[in-house]
Amino acid sequence: MSMDPGKPNFARLRTLQVSAVMAGVSVFVISGLLMGVFRAPGVATVVLALAFASATFGAVFYFGALLLEGSLQKYILSDETVIQGDDVKMVTHTASSGDPVIDKWIGTYAFARNLFGMSIVPILILAALYYFG
């Protein structure tokens, strides 16, 4: 556990990470049950359940870490969207802290940000198809 005000609280981050994983798994199971993924899996329902679970994990970890351990945000330098053929990637450029443990958490934080951002896209597309299709 870190007491330095400039360093994140690693125990709190680990608890937040475990909570985010449990929330994501719970959302996958509940949405899977409600959409019949386990009875008759279809590509659309599996993708939706995974998108809901990914968005939940990303949101819980990213926003939780932003609120509880805002010190990680200072290592995020910039974000960009890279399109390579049919692939669209969100790339986050980060600064190194000089501490390998903090750098690992910065990577996890950046991953959760990107996962949240990229998992919202299919949900928005499918919602638009539902309402306007």
Write the layout of secondary structure elements.
Elements (H helix, E strand, L loop, with lengths): L9 H26 L7 H26 L7 E9 L2 E8 L5 H33 L1
Antiparallel strand pairs: 1-2
Helix pairs in contact: 1-2, 2-3
Summarize the structure in words.
Strand 1 and strand 2 (87-94) form a beta hairpin. Helix content is 64%, strand content 13%. The protein has helices spanning 10-35, 43-68, 100-132, and strands at residues 76-84, 87-94. It is globular, with a radius of gyration of 17 Å. The chain is an alpha+beta fold. The chain has a two-stranded antiparallel ribbon. The longest helix has 33 residues, at 100-132. The relative contact order is 0.15. The mean pLDDT is 88.
What is the gist of this entry?
The protein has helices at 10-35, 43-68, 100-132, and strands at residues 76-84, 87-94.
Alpha-beta classification: alpha+beta
Number of helices: 3
Give the overall average pLDDT. 88
Number of strands: 2
Strand order within the widest beta sheet: 1-2
Please state roughly what percent of the residues sit in beta strands, choosing from under 5%, 5-15%, 15-25%, 25-35%, 35-45% or over 45%: 5-15%
Helix content: 55-70%
End-to-end distance: 52 Å
> What integer value in Å does the Rg equal?
17 Å
Q: Which oligomeric state applies?
A: single chain
Largest sheet: 2 strands, antiparallel
Shape: globular
Instruction: Write down the secondary-structure element order.
Output: HHEEH
| Low confidence ranges | none
